[in-house]
Design brief:
375 residues, alpha+beta, Cytidine Deaminase, domain 2, 2 domains, 9 helices
Length: 375
C-alpha cells in the first residue's frame, strides 16, 4: 500500500461521516432531540446520530465533552462508554471498567488502601493487550496519578463523574503524550441512577433491538435481583439421579463480595459469559461462546496467556450468566483453582452439578435469574 493510500485510510477513521438525520424524532410516544451527528456508526461508511429523550435527565445523553479528538465520538465509542458506566454504577467503592468491543476486558473495585490508580491498573491488566484502544469508566473523580497512568497507553475515551485539579492539563499535554493526543475526556454525572435492580425501572430505560428488516424488539432493561451479599442463596436442587443436594462448602466473606462483583460485571458481558474475580479484580472474562464450558475454558486460557497482574486463580470466584447444563463447567473451573461460583439454576442436572461441586470443594451459589446479554 502506498503512503498516500495509508494516510487516506487513517483519515477515514478520523473524519466525520454526517448523514441526513432529523433534529427531533418520536419513538414509542416519546420525543427525542438529536445530541449530535456522530463521527460515524459502527464503521466509517455508516453515518449515525445520537439522540436523547426530551425533558428527561439523561446521564449518557447529557454527558459533557471536556476534551475532544478524532472529530468526536462514534457509535462504537458511545456503546463502550454506556456499557462501562453500566458496570461501575453498581459499586459504592471506587470502581473502574475497561471496555473493548462492548465487553469488559477488565474491571476492578478498590480493595484495602488501594489508590484510584491501583484500581485502574487492576482493571487494565486483566487483559492489557485487549485494553489497547479501550473506553475507560470510573465511578469516582480521576486524579493526577491515574491520569498519567492512563496516558501511558493508548485509550480512546475516559468517562468519570469529575476530574481533579490538574488532570485536564495532563490529558491535553499532547507534547508529552503524542500517542494519546486524540483521547476524548467526558464527564457523566448521576449515572448511578441508571437501572440496576429489578422492579425499579421505567419505560424510559427500555432497550430497543432493530432486526435486519427494520422490525423492532422492545424489552425491559437487563437488571438483577441481587442487591447485596445478603441476597446470595446456597445452591440446592433435587432430581431422581442424585436426590436432594445442597452446597456444602461455605464461601469466605471476601468470596461473597467477589461473587457479587463478578455478577454485576457479568451483566455487561455478551453471553455465554463468565467472569473470574479475586479481591475485587477481574482476572479474566470469557465471552461470546456458544457453549457454557467453552466460556469457562476461554476465561482460563485468557488468564494464563493475557493476564498481567499479580494474582493467581487459586481461591478465586466465578460468575456464570447461565446455568451449568453439565458438571464439566464446574470441573474445569475447580481444576484451575476456582473455589466459589455463582450461577442461576434451571438445569435438569442442577443436583448433579451441586453434588460434583461438593466433591471438588467448590462453594456454589444460585442466583435468582439468568442474565444473558445478546448485545
Amino acid at each position: 500500500m502506498s503512503e498516500e493510500k495509508s494516510v487516506m485510510n487513517r483519515n477515514t477513521y478520523l473524519s466525520k461521516n454526517i448523514g441526513d438525520f432529523s433534529e427531533t424524532i418520536e419513538f414509542a410516544g416519546r420525543k427525542y432531540l438529536k445530541v449530535e451527528d456522530l463521527r460515524y456508526g459502527t464503521n466509517p461508511h455508516q453515518p449515525a446520530a445520537f439522540y436523547k429523550p426530551i425533558d428527561v435527565v439523561s446521564p449518557i445523553g447529557d454527558m459533557k465533552m471536556l476534551k475532544n479528538g478524532k472529530s468526536g465520538l462514534s457509535q462504537t465509542n458511545l456503546e463502550d462508554l454506556s456499557y462501562a458506566l453500566n458496570i461501575v454504577k453498581f459499586f459504592d467503592l471506587p470502581a473502574c471498567a475497561v471496555m473493548k468491543h462492548v465487553n469488559p476486558s477488565g474491571a476492578a473495585t478498590k480493595c484495602g488502601d488501594e489508590s484510584i490508580k491501583d484500581v485502574y491498573i487492576k482493571a487494565r491488566d486483566c487483559d492489557a493487550r485487549a485494553a489497547f484502544g479501550s473506553a475507560v469508566a470510573f465511578n469516582v473523580p480521576v486524579d493526577v496519578e491515574t491520569a498519567k497512568e492512563i496516558m501511558g497507553t493508548f485509550v480512546e475515551c475516559v468517562v468519570a463523574p469529575d476530574y481533579e485539579e490538574g488532570v485536564l492539563e495532563i490529558f491535553n499535554d499532547t507534547e508529552t503524550y503524542k500517542f494519546n493526543r486524540h483521547v476524548r475526556i467526558i464527564q457523566a454525572v448521576n449515572f448511578e441512577s441508571l437501572p440496576k435492580y429489578t422492579g425499579e425501572t421505567s419505560e424510559i430505560h427500555n432497550t430497543v433491538k432493530v432486526l435486519a428488516d427494520g422490525s423492532l424488539v422492545i424489552a425491559a432493561p437487563l437488571t438483577t435481583s441481587l442487591c447485596s451479599v445478603a441476597d446470595l442463596k446456597v445452591a440446592e436442587a433435587e432430581n431422581k439421579r442424585c436426590g436432594m443436594q445442597k452446597s456444602e462448602t461455605e464461601p469466605t466473606e471476601q468470596q461473597k463480595n467477589d461473587m457479587l462483583t463478578a455478577w454485576y460485571i457479568n451483566l455487561s458481558v455478551r453471553s455465554n459469559g463468565v467472569v473470574i474475580v479475586k479481591d475485587g479484580q477481574t482476572l479474566s472474562v470469557g465471552t461470546g461462546e456458544q457453549d457454557r464450558v467453552g466460556a469457562v475454558e476461554q476465561a482460563i486460557w485468557k488468564f494464563e496467556n493475557k493476564y498481567e497482574g499479580k494474582a493467581t486463580l487459586q481461591n478465586s470466584v466465578m460468575a456464570s450468566d447461565g446455568f451449568f447444563p453439565f458438571e464439566d463447567g464446574v470441573e474445569v473451573a475447580a481444576k484451575a483453582g476456582i473455589t466459589a461460583i455463582i450461577a442461576p439454576s434451571g438445569s435438569l442436572r442442577d443436583a448433579d452439578v451441586i453434588k460434583r461441586a461438593n466433591e471438588l470443594g467448590v462453594a456454589l451459589v444460585h442466583a435468582p435469574e439468568r442474565i444473558f446479554s445478546h448485545h
